[in-house]
């Protein structure tokens, strides 16, 4: 135990607890920043995917909290020895699973500042800067993405930061549900129908469950390789016609730019026109790929966004803003407010009652909310748009290089077009393989992940077990992509020999 830790313990034992002593914060803050910096410096030495067994931590930690204070150094030692082995290192340059969850120095500093202020910004009056900065920064990013003016705060719409894309989808689904029920009556809930492709994120299904949409009224339209797994407008049109003729009420459509399985892009313009013709709320989920659309050469993937009612993307996925920071824009903010607003006496205040401010509590599910816009503001200011564009382009270039490596080895095949920084591929099964390579590729996934050297994830497309290689970790470079390819080749050699 060092001298500073001893003196801190002495103060704690003799005096009343002072949990926010500024000098204490300075001392411990420096130690924590050093610890985190050292973690990033050595991150490549850790197994990317945690190799612990379920319940491992209960055997390592006491079964009761301490009665007396312990030193920060003792806590950090336990983090190093007991917590880190149970961490899957999402920021590792050898992390290629799911989609990225970006961290950065700017995002981290914004998170620190948010934690330091520790405001609970549900209404404008609770911290005006928190509300107003969020409005401004969401307008900034809307302009970078070249979203229609209707999504800007200067009109009837605007942007808001949610925790995740799942929350964003739930919020707009509730708004859409209530908007239509106000017209046709609350007793018509059983008639409401939701549309999406079978590639849409499962968050929509959960949102339907929460919103009370009847399970049988959730229309999942099949997408296949003929359209690169994009939703087919004709199928949507047919489904709507059938539902209308049966007395149902189509009210919500979710399209995706960058699906979870294969980064497929739904045809927004055609889908939007169908939605508009049938007075359907049209939500576009670009949780992953929305970040790429800050680059002019990828902006066309959201062409047709002018037809959308709402649009969402996760800055915490691929835009260097630490989790959580999910961005949602709507054309009509009153739809959110009418669905989600409450006005108890204890929350009433002059600014809100005069209707001169935004109260984001009425745009989301929970009441409380963090000062998340600080992170995004610092990312945009400390890096600038041009550097962020270069960052995205580099990951896409690395994904292209990985795809070229796959095509150079006849034992592997690419199974879906590479649009952004995700490559979908598989090990080609031997002729006559009973399950068309399902078990073979499952075993390859397990082998590379248990090696600890890299971490990838999988999906199933057209009945085939597919491996997903998503480039997007902040520290990933060409050398990591090549090393990952060697791990895959070596494990494939072993499996095919067996």
UniProtKB/TrEMBL annotation:
Cellular component annotations (GO), alphabetically ordered: cytoplasm
Keyword Lyase carried by entry: yes
Keyword terms of this UniProt record: Decarboxylase, Lyase, Pyridoxal phosphate
PROSITE patterns, A to Z: DDC_GAD_HDC_YDC
GO MF assignments: carboxy-lyase activity; pyridoxal phosphate binding
Modified residues (N6-(pyridoxal phosphate)lysine): 317
Cofactor: pyridoxal 5'-phosphate
Gene Ontology terms: biological process: amino acid metabolic process; carboxylic acid metabolic process; phenol-containing compound biosynthetic process; primary amino compound biosynthetic process
Family: Belongs to the group II decarboxylase family.
Protein name, UniProt field: Tyrosine decarboxylase
Lineage: Eukaryota, Viridiplantae, Streptophyta, Embryophyta, Tracheophyta
